[in-house]
Amino acid sequence: MPVAAPDSRPVTSAAVPGPERPPKLALIGNPNSGKTSLFNQLTGLNQKVGNFPGVTVDRKTGLAPLGGARRAEVIDLPGTYSLYPKSLDERVIADLLYDPTSADYPDFVVVTVDASNLRRGLLLFTQLADLGLPAVLGLNMTDVAAERGISIDVPALERELQVPVVPLNARKGTGLAALRIVLADRLAVAPTRRFWEIPASLRPLVQQVRARFGLHNDYLALHYAHQFRQLHFLSEADRTDLARLTEQAGFDSTARQAEETVARYARLNEVLLDVVTVTRTERQEPASNKIDKVLTHRVFGYLIFLAILFLLFQAIFAWAQYPMDWIDQGISALSGAIQARFSGPLVRLLTEGVIAGLGGVLIFIPQIALLFAFLAVLEESGYMARVTFLMDKLMRPFGLSGKSVVPLISGLACAVPAIMGARTIESWKDRMLTIFVTPLMSCSARIPVYTVLVALVVPDESWLGLFNMRGLVLMGLYLLGTASALLSAWALKVVLKARERSYFIMEFPVYRWPRWKNVGLTIVEKVKAFVWQAGKVIVAISVLLWVLASYGPGQRQAQAEAAVQRQAAAQRWPAPETERRVASARLETSYAGTFGHLIEPAIRPLGFDWKIGIALLTSFAAREVFVGTMSTIYSVGQDADLGTVQQKLANEKDTQGHPFFTPRRALSLLVFYVFAMQCMSTLATTYRETKSWRWPLGQLVYMTGLAYLASLLVWQVF
Amino acid sequence: MALFRRSSAAAPAPPAARTANDLQPGETATVCCLNDPDMALKLLDMGCIPGTRVKLVGRAPLGDPLMLTLGDEGYTLSLRVSEARTIQLKA
């Protein structure tokens, strides 16, 4: 419970003794008011990204040098239009500003406002001022305001608001020196002026709340009455008390909020009367509107969006391949170099377990970096809002919104960055639906599996002399994945209850050139988040899978190996052939092999045998491992000159001597790979993004169940 | 203060009342009141208060959502048809 002496404001809370503690300042402002640009300008690379307790809202903090040895600790709060939260993200602000005992409680706030939208930005400022928080006003985007013929009398604004006002262009960095001086000298003052008087009818309730919690401010007490159900720091007893008090007073939160907002706007009209002058130079249509005529056109709008998607796809599929190959080769070279010099089980654990797992993490970096470079540019330029606008109606029948489009399509390349990209979706329900179904989109890791199996059973012929059969089947697999993603979202939307009312209302930002610094910082931040957080889980599971595939119960592995060696000696196999057969025998008798035999009864109805069972287990690490595992297992009993995996699979015979991989069996396996959740990186990312094991477990059970049923259908019906 | 009407979902505004969804592209009108209390709070926060001038800039190719310009600052909002229907206009 927050405790403060009745008449002292916790302006500089002396929680940590000593004068060296840098002051804490919180950045707060409307979305699109240039808050993030200002944060990047103030802190540069000294940023730390974490999460606010209990929610997946990015908590960005950084140290801002203010000249000399003086520094300030800056925290970037989610963009909001008012202190009454409308989304889960915005609740973070209330938890932070209403609890003076919280670790992040700021010494003062910097409110960024868009100078071309001054009135709306100042609504938030007046609320903060009425809370008595020391504040500085950062008057941002003065260039846009000037373009629109809006001139602002800064000294007059300072007089009216009674806090320092610093004109800024955060994107270019102008005005920052002035802001640093204001911050360093701690010129932020608690405004003495109040912008809204609490109506007399609410006073008794406000006094009761103030007395009950020992609050220093009337307006804060009123916010307790409005928001107590959502304030995390209040105890159960506190909430019961507040529920009783508000009920006794007949307090109608919605109506009182609406009245307050209208009264504040009326007050702001007076404040701005002598501050803002608009010189109407027969306004020509803003450039943004002209661009919108093309980019949201009923034909060109979609064509341009398709072209951008194509480029995005090209980048993640093709361009990312080069750095991915380098990483792959680098990791193999490292493992090879270590294995050439040392040997023993520990070295194998290091190379085949840890380093291979690490490779599985690092390999994603190029795709993540490229996708987020694209997303950051689209977001920064203002185009993303238009994509949402174009696609919203198409996505709504499935319970998704226009904002789900980009993550879903990125999922065709790789679900990991795609799920991370779903953070742009504000509505909790839309975001969870998007995250949940994204892995059903056929990602690039499925390509090797698809191509091997399709080439195995589908003839390389054309249909109607036009379409290549293999291409058609491949396209069908992609369509199957996409359709299942949309239908799953549609089914899930019925089950999932919304935690909040979701709004589509959003501001259309004006088009602007992206700032490369912001783009660069986004990439660094996302890559770091993936490597550190998802990476831990991936390496751990890689090591586990390595142990399962390398060791077996009892002496069976040693016996199997000895048997192969005897056979080799008797039949004079060349060394590579022996090695292959030993590897295959060891895998068969390992825990993984035992597991394959164990689950064979379960997967037999799908047309799979124990060998495919092993491949299913090992491809849980990553789907592409399927090809390698199949190659190892099917080396048994074949000619020395093995050729490709495809040939090996084609040569495999069933008990009657017919080819094992019939079209029916291959199709069953293909369908399984379309649906099955076989990617621990995705599960780890889902866990990171949802902060709960329920979601990744749900994905695992649902997708694997779907895969099983679909394969069963294929094998039993055809 | 009759800021917004407390109308239940079952009884929407009478069909005679024009809403922001009835505007023609390029047409301007004045906000009279907001029919949905919860939606009203969000709209008010964003500056869509009774008395504000709104202009329908255009609609998405499939007719939904739509783009509204608000007030003299001339900033643009995008909102769904269901949301625009809660903005009642002065006759």
TrEMBL record, chain A:
Annotated region described as Disordered, given as residue ranges: 1-26
FeoB-type G domain segment(s): 22-189
Binding of GTP, residues: 29-36, 54-58, 76-79, 140-143
Domain of life: Bacteria
Topology of this chain in the membrane: Multi-pass membrane protein
Annotated Gene3D superfamilies: P-loop containing nucleotide triphosphate hydrolases
Xref: CDD domains: FeoB
Name of protein: Ferrous iron transport protein B
Cellular localization per UniProt: Cell inner membrane; Cell membrane
TrEMBL record, chain B:
Residue segments, region Disordered: 1-22
Domain of life: Bacteria
Residue ranges annotated for the Ferrous iron transporter FeoA-like domain, each copy included: 18-91
Compositionally biased region (Low complexity): 1-11
Keywords, sorted A to Z: Iron
GO molecular function annotations of the record: transition metal ion binding
Name recorded for this polypeptide: Ferrous iron transport protein A
